Amino acid sequence: MELIKLPKILDERGNLSFFESEKQIPFFIARAYWIYDVPGGEIRGSHAYKTLHEVIIALSGSFDVVLNDGLNEKVFTLNRSYTGLYIPKMIWRRVQNFSTNSLALIVADQPYNDDEYIRDFEQFTAEKNNNGEECIRL
């Protein structure tokens, strides 16, 4: 995991930020999706991906991304549209504490595939241990 600072072009008419595949984003982008209109107190995510990598950006508002590598947990608060959070494969993620009118943009290195998801935390930790997956120091 790492926070990625995206280019920020300052202009009195309004600022502009951007990213490009395999430049600021450390992979080829195969899919983009966004999360919005999240009711107060709701949690999104609560899963891991077997091989998928993604970057999450708060385009508007703020929210917390809680990451767990199977041993350690760390919270990242995203609230700037010029900062992305890179999440590699086999990291459990939960997105919570959405502010009013928040907008989360997610880009991934693979198209949607339901078989890619691990939706049970115990299964996640078992697969991580059985596959010899190294826990990343959060």
Distance between the termini: 8 Å
As a percent range, the share of strand residues is 35-45%
User: Per the principal axes of the C-alpha atoms, what is the gross shape?
Assistant: globular
Element pattern in H and E:
EEEEEEEEEEEEH
Sheet having the most strands = 5 strands, antiparallel
Provide tags for this entry:
138 residues; mainly beta; 5-stranded antiparallel β-sheet
Structure description:
This protein is mainly beta. The protein contains one helix and twelve strands. The protein has one helix at 121-130; strands at 2-5, 8-9, 16-17, 31-36, 44-49, 54-60, 63-68, 73-78, 83-87, 92-96, 103-108, 117-118. The radius of gyration is 15 Å and the shape is globular. The model has no long low-confidence stretch (mean pLDDT 94).
Quick recap:
With 138 residues, this protein is mainly beta. The protein contains one helix and twelve strands. The radius of gyration is 15 Å and the shape is globular.
Fold blueprint:
Blueprint: E1 2-5, E2 8-9, E3 16-17, E4 31-36, E5 44-49, E6 54-60, E7 63-68, E8 73-78, E9 83-87, E10 92-96, E11 103-108, E12 117-118, H1 121-130
Antiparallel strand pairs: 1-9, 2-3, 4-11, 5-10, 5-12, 6-9, 6-11, 7-8, 7-10
